[in-house]
Amino acid sequence: MRVIRLLIALACLAAGAILGALNRQIVSIDLGIGFVPATSLGIALIVALLLGALIGGLAISASVVLPLRRRLSRAERAASAAPAAPLTGPEV
């Protein structure tokens, strides 16, 4: 599993380096509320991809993971509060 993670990390680094090398044009970005000074297009693309992944991960965490954790903790509390049923063997 470590080798697969290492290979994926190296592939992402290589893709980022290629993206940065092939997009050397200088761009200025106006966000409406702010202004990003002149930077290379490759860096702007990589930052946009990383921000999109981060915002998407936070949205999934807030909408799926947190409610499931709450449900799990409620179920665990209910299970620990309920008396345990006596264990019986198979009847013959």
The oligomeric status of these chains comes to: single chain
With strands numbered from the N-terminus, the spatial order across the biggest sheet is: 1-2
Main structural class: mainly alpha
What portion of the residues fall into strands of 2 or more residues? Answer: 5-15%
Mean pLDDT: 87
Can you count the beta strands? 2
**Form type:** elongated
SSE sequence, one letter per element: HEEH
- Over all CA atoms, what is the radius of gyration? 25 Å
Q: What fraction, in percent, of the residue positions are helical?
A: 55-70%
The largest sheet, given as strand count, sense and whether it forms a barrel, is:
2 strands, antiparallel
Number of helices: 2
Which regions contain 5 or more consecutive residues with pLDDT less than 50? none
Q: In whole angstroms, how far apart are the ends?
A: 48 Å
Notes on the protein architecture:
The protein has 92 residues and is mainly alpha-helical. It has 2 helices and 2 strands; from the N terminus they run H-E-E-H. The chain has helices at 2-22, 41-81, and strands spanning 26-30, 35-40. The chain has a two-stranded antiparallel sheet. It is elongated, with a radius of gyration of 25 Å. 0% of the residues are buried.
Spell out the blueprint of helices and strands.
Blueprint: H1 2-22, E1 26-30, E2 35-40, H2 41-81
Antiparallel strand pairs: 1-2
Helix pairs in contact: 1-2
